[in-house]
Amino acid sequence: MIRELADYERAPQEAKATEEQLREALFGAHPAVFALIAEETGGAGEPGGPVGFALWFRNFSTWTGTHGVYLEDLYVTPRARGGGHGKALLAELARICVERGYARFEWSVLDWNEPAIGFYTALGAEPMDEWTVRRLSGEPLRKLAAQAMGTAVTSDSLSEATSLSN
Fold first, then answer.
1. 133: phi > 0 → left, psi -120 to 50 → alpha, else beta; which?
2. What CDD domains is this protein classified in (predicted)?
3. pLDDT higher at 164 or 58
4. Which of 30, 59, 83, 102 is the most buried (most CB within 10 A)?
């Protein structure tokens, strides 16, 4: 389904995650991400197999002082769209937020994806028009990381910041 999502988002070449990487991220000693799976019901109430997923992780707002949920990916297979699976996945993530006292549930949507934008708007999701996502990857990421070697940030100050978050 991840590869199907990459195709839909017109970026199949960017779907490089391996099964091993996903297994470690989701089920390793220190999970960094979480997933919900939507399944169709087969005959006699038996599961009919996966038809969608929501991949998410916790974020944190310094303004509210609380965690939130960031939805990295939401995908429902084309044959199952319109069956309520996407809404059910989003509703479950909203429930997690409310139950745990998280203040925000956020995600990004491609500006050309009108069906998704309409779906999210109908749920009451507000566009964050003043905010623009920025990303560092590849060579620019490595170049900036190399500059950290000569900065005034010491391992002691990093340790102090880390201990405050624990």
1. beta
2. NAT_SF
3. 58
4. 102
Report d(CA 6, CA 83) in Å as an integer: 21
User: DSSP string covering 67-131, please?
Assistant: EEEEEEEEEE-GGGTTSSHHHHHHHHHHHHHHHHT--EEEE---TT-HHHHHHHHHHTPPP-TT-
Strand partners, 68: 59, 104
Question: Residues of 95-114 as b/e, b for ≥16 C-beta within 10 angstroms?
Answer: ebbeeeebeebebebeeeee
d(CA 98, CA 100): 6
Go through the domains of the chain in sequence order and give each one's CATH number.
1-133 (3.40.630.30)
Q: What is the pTM of this model?
A: 0.83
CA-based nearest residue to 101, from 61, 128, 53: 61
Q: Is 102 an annotated catalytic residue?
A: no
Residue type, 77: T
pLDDT tens digits along 22-50: 999 999 999 999 999 999 987 776 768 99
